[in-house]
Amino acid sequence: MRRFLACALSLFLLASCTRVGTGSESAAGRHAWTVPGTLRIGSQVAPISLNPILSSNTTEGMIDRLMFDVLLTADETGKPVPSLASEVPTLQNGGVAKDELSVTYHLRPNAKWQDGVPITSKDVAFTWRAIMSPRNNVIERNGYELVSSVDTPDDRTIVFHLKQKFSPFVNTVFAESDDAFEVLPEHLLGKLPDINHIPYNSNPIGSGPFKLKEWARGDHITLVANENYFLGAPKLKEIVIKFIPDENTELNQLRTHDLDWQFEASPNEYKGLLTVPDIKVILQDRNEYELVQMNTKHPPLDDVRVRQAIVYAIDNQKLTHDLTAGSATAADQDLPPFMWAHAQDITRYPFNPEKSKALLAAAGWKPGPSGFLEKNGQRLTLVLATNVSNATRRLAVVQVQNMLRAVGIDVEIKFYLGSLLFATKPEGGILQNGRYDLSWNGWVAGIDPDQSTNFTCNALPPNGNNTSFYCNAAMDAAQEKALTNSDIPVRKAAYGVIEALLTRDKPVDPIWWPRQIQPINPDFKGFAPNPVTASWNAYQWEI
C-alpha cells in the first residue's frame, strides 16, 4: 500500500505525451474511425472475477474502478480526493483522531448502488469484514488487519478503530493503495458464507459510473453508462474491453483504429508506437518497477550469495537500453527517485560477471562436465517464469537466460498466462504458491512508499504479496517503525534501513522504473491517469 505526501506531489505524476498524428476528421471534429460515445479498450489479461476485493492484477483493478468506488481516490497529481466519502479525513478537520487511533468518514448522501439501493455505512463495514474473512480469497489485507473494529453510528458515518498507529491508513484503506479495494453491497452479499465463487462475481451490481452489460469470457466485456451515478452521468455511453492475449495483435488493432486505448503497453512497443498515425502516447509516472523476483525458500536461492551473484550477472543498463526505447530508467531499488522515501546511500550492484562467479564459487558451486555449475552432482538449474502476453518480458527473459548462463547458471524459461501467474493462492497462482525459482514481473504500488505487503513475514501468501517468501526480523522492525510514525524524517530514516536490507538480501532485483505507456486515440478526452489507476475519473471520459 502506498501514500505520497502533498509536499512532494508536484513531482509525482509528470504525465507527458508524444506526437499526435494528423488524419482525416469528420465535420464533428472526430476521426472517421472513432465511434462516438463508445470507448474500445484492449487488454492482454482477462479477468478471473469482477468482484473487486478478489482482484489480483492491474487489469482487474482498472475494470473494477469502472463499476465500483473507493472511499478516497487521487487526482492526476496524486492528491487525495473524495469518492464515496464526502471529504478526506485529516487531523485538522477531526476525521483523524488526535491519537491517530481512529479515523472517521462521512458518505455522500446521494450515493446509490446500481439497483437503486442507497449506499450506507453498513456496506463499508461489511466489506471490511469480507476482506478480513479467512474464507475469502483476498490477496492481501495490509492496513485492513490493523482495524480492531468498525462503528456505524448512522447510515452516513463510519469510524475505523485501529489497533496501532498506521500512518498510511487514509491513503490505504478503501483508497489508492497497491490493492485498491472498492466497497461491496451488503444487501446483496451480507448473508453469504464466502464470496469466492458466486454468481455476483460474474454479474456484479456496483456503485460506479458503468454497469455490466455482457461478459463474454476470454473475449470481451461490455459496460454501459450508469445514468444515476452520484458524481454525475458519464459522458460515455458504452465501454468495450477486448481481451487480446498477444501484444503484437493488440498493436495491430491499435494501428487499424479498432482500439481507442491499449491498456498498459509494454516498453518494447514504445518506439513503434511513435510511428503509428493518429495516436497519442501518454507516459505515466507511477510508483512502479520491473523486477527479477527470487523465490528465497527454494534452494539454492535460500543462499544470499547465490541471489547476489544473480544480481551481479544481470546487466540492468543493457536491458533497460535494449528493451524500453527510452521510456524507462535503470533501477537500483524498488522506490523510484520521485518518491520521498527513495534511498540514496545503498549498496549497488554494477554488472560484474567475475564478481558473480566468485560468489557462486564461495557458495560451493563449481564448473561441471556440462559447462554449467554443479554441487554434489546436481546442476545449478533455475526456472524463470513470466507472463506470455507481454512482448517486452518475452524478450527480457531470453536476455536474462543468456546472462545467467554466461556465469554457469542453467535457466529454463516458462511462460504463463497472466491470469494464472498473478492469481491468488487458492486460485492456483504460480507466484503466490511459490511454483517458480525466478520470475520477471512488475509491481505497481500506491501513493505511499509502504511496501510491507511485499517484504514482511506476516505478508506471506495467502495473507499478502510476499511472493519472494522473504522473512527477516530486522525488516519487520524497520517496516513497523515506518508505518507507525507520521513524522516524515522518522519514516524516511526507516525506509533507508529497509532499502539497505533489500539491497543486501536481494529477494528482488529491480531492473527499471517504467513510465507506464498508455497509447490512446486523440479523440479520447478526459483521460488523466492518477499514480495508481487510469480509470479513477471514468465518468469524465468522452469520445
- Unreliable spans are 1-23
Q: What is the averaged pLDDT score?
A: 92
> SS-based structural class?
alpha+beta
CATH architecture of the domain at 288-515: Roll
Which sheet architecture does the biggest sheet show? 8 strands, mixed
User: In percent, how helical is the residue content?
Assistant: 10-25%
The CATH class of the domain at 288-515 turns out to be Alpha Beta
User: Which term fits the overall shape?
Assistant: globular
Find the CATH superfamily of the domain at 288-515: Dipeptide-binding Protein, Domain 3
Number of helices: 14
Separation of termini?
33 Å
The portion of residues forming beta strands comes to 15-25%
Rg computed from alpha carbons, rounded to a whole number of angstroms: 23 Å
DSSP, total strands: 21
CATH topology of the domain at 288-515: Dipeptide-binding Protein, domain 3
Summarize the structure.
The protein has 543 residues and is an alpha+beta fold. 23% of the residues lie in helices and 20% in strands. The strands form 5 sheets. Strands 1, 12, 13, 14, 18, 19, 20 and 21 form an 8-stranded mixed sheet that branches. The chain has a 5-stranded mixed sheet with strand order 8-9-10-2-11, with helices on both faces.
Structural notes for this entry:
The chain is α+β, with helices and mostly antiparallel strands and 543 residues long. It has a domain at 288-515: Dipeptide-binding Protein, Domain 3 (Dipeptide-binding Protein, domain 3, Roll), CATH 3.10.105.10. 23% of the residues lie in helices and 20% in strands. Mean pLDDT is 92; it is low at 1-23.
